[in-house]
Specification:
The protein has about 130 residues and is an all-alpha fold. It is built from 4 helices and no strands. The longest helix is centred in the N-terminal third of the chain and has 44 residues.
Length: about 130
Amino acid sequence: MSLSRRARILVKSAALWTGVAVAVLCIALAGLGFLVTGLFILVARHTDYASASAITGSVLLLLAVAIGLIGGAVLKRIRTKQPSMLSEFGGTIGLAGRLIGILVRRDPKKAIIISIIAGALAEYIASDGKQ
C-alpha cells in the first residue's frame, strides 16, 4: 500500500472519529440539559420559580465544585515528579565530558578537529545572522 493511500485512510479515519465524538458530545449535552430541566420542574412544583431557579443553580454549582476538587486530586496524584532542569543539564554536561575524555584519549588529532568544527558551529548558531 502506498504512503499517500495510507495518509488518506488515516485522515479519513481521524475525520470520522472527530465527527462521531462531536455527535456524542452534542447528544450528551442535550441529555444533561433535559436532566437539569427536569430537576427545575420537579423543584418548581413545590416552590415558586425564583426559588426553583436558585435551588437548581446551587445544586449545579455544588456539583461543579465537587467534580473540580475530585478531578484536581486525581490529577495531582497522577502527576509524576519531574527531575529539575538543573539536574538534567548537569547529567548532560557530565556525559559530554566523559565522551570528550574518551575521544581525547583515543585520538587527540580527531578531538582537535572536532573541537574546531564545534566552535565554528557554535559561532554560526550564536551569531545574529550578520556576516
